[in-house]
Amino acid sequence: MLPGRAIYTAGQVSIDERGALVGGDDVSAQTAQAMRNVGLALAAAGASYTDIVKLTTYVVNYKPEHRAVIGKARAPFFQSGAPPASTLVGVAALALPEWLVEIEAVAIVG
């Protein structure tokens, strides 16, 4: 068991502060917005991207080429250049049809 306080974020999707979709049908843009939302959720709990120990990314109609696109979109959020452990899962659909990407994070603080 890791020392500290565990923070679990619910799945974050590509919506802005008004609830509007960001990125349309662009998996990269949706990934980047979902990651920004992960950051907001972590900040609300007193954590940051550096505290993430595990990510789970769900992608609608996953294709192998999505892996590199998602990795590139997530990279700027991990300044050390070393992203945390992660799982990428292809799914048939998410809660709303316009959502293509959903990201959950687990962070440890303290």
Strand order of the largest sheet: 1-4-2-3
- The geometry reads as globular
What is the tally of beta strands?
4
- Order of SSEs, N→C? EHEHEE
Approximate strand percentage: 25-35%
List segments where confidence is low: pLDDT < 50 over at least 5 consecutive residues.
Answer: none
Quickly give the structural class. alpha+beta
Description:
This protein has 110 residues and is of the alpha+beta class. It is 25% helix and 26% strand. The chain has two helices and four strands, in the order E-H-E-H-E-E. It has a four-stranded mixed beta sheet with strand order 1-4-2-3, with helices on one face. Helix 2 (66-74) links the parallel strand 2 and strand 3. Helix 1 packs across helix 2 (66-74). The chain is globular and about 40 Å long. The model has no long low-confidence stretch (mean pLDDT 95).
Feature tags:
alpha+beta; 2 helices; 110 residues; 25% helix; four-stranded mixed sheet; 26% strand
Question: Outline of this structure?
Answer:
The protein has 2 helices and 4 strands. The chain has helices at 27-44, 66-74; strands at residues 5-8, 52-60, 85-91, 101-109. A 4-stranded mixed β-sheet has the order 1-4-2-3, covered by helices on one side.
Strands, helices and their partners?
Layout (H helix, E strand, L loop, with lengths): L4 E4 L18 H18 L7 E9 L5 H9 L10 E7 L9 E9 L1
Parallel strand pairs: 2-3
Antiparallel strand pairs: 1-4, 2-4
Helix pairs in contact: 1-2
